[in-house]
Amino acid sequence: MSDSFFVVTELHAFIRKVAIDYVRYGYYRYVLREIPPHKNPLLVDEKLIDVYNVTRCRITRTRRRKKGLANVVFVRKGHDFILLATEGTHPTFDRLCYRDMRSVPLHFGGYSIGVKAEKPCVLVARRTWKPIEQYFLSIALRPRPEVEVKLNTGLKFYSFPGVIRQKLKLVKTINNRRRKAHLPRVELMLKTGHNQQKRATVKPCRAILKHR
To answer: What's the domain range around 150?
Structure first.
């Protein structure tokens, strides 16, 4: 029977489950796949659980790890799913052409999930962020109210620390240009549980915050 524990319906839930529930605990190896439209995702869930011996039992997973065996889980959103595995041997998973999130971040839904300092780090993917960054730098010297409105309405991404760092770095770059042009600083309102005004300072990517 399919296990809804491994199924999510929202993008933020997918990213959070992958990064917090799994990557944080050493599920670095991954394979991203798409289910054909004509196939029933629930049946695919059942097959994945059976073929890869997916279990939610912590005791079973611990026993496997002590034997040098890899644990495999999956997360599915719609017709997309990702298989994640820990270090160790797994006859079925090892035959796949997998990637390691520590060296090749996962890209999904405009975000990237990677590992920095042995911790999961979620960012807006470069190909998504670069055009946005270029746009805001092109309007950096416009009147302060205009720039602030655009900043606070045009950067609607989930508030993971890595994403917040990207936003603050952008604001810092904008303010450097405005300072040289003798223009007032602009500020960005960030939501981290409640509205809170943040200064444009860059901090390292740390453990992921609960986002709203």
So the answer is: 125-198
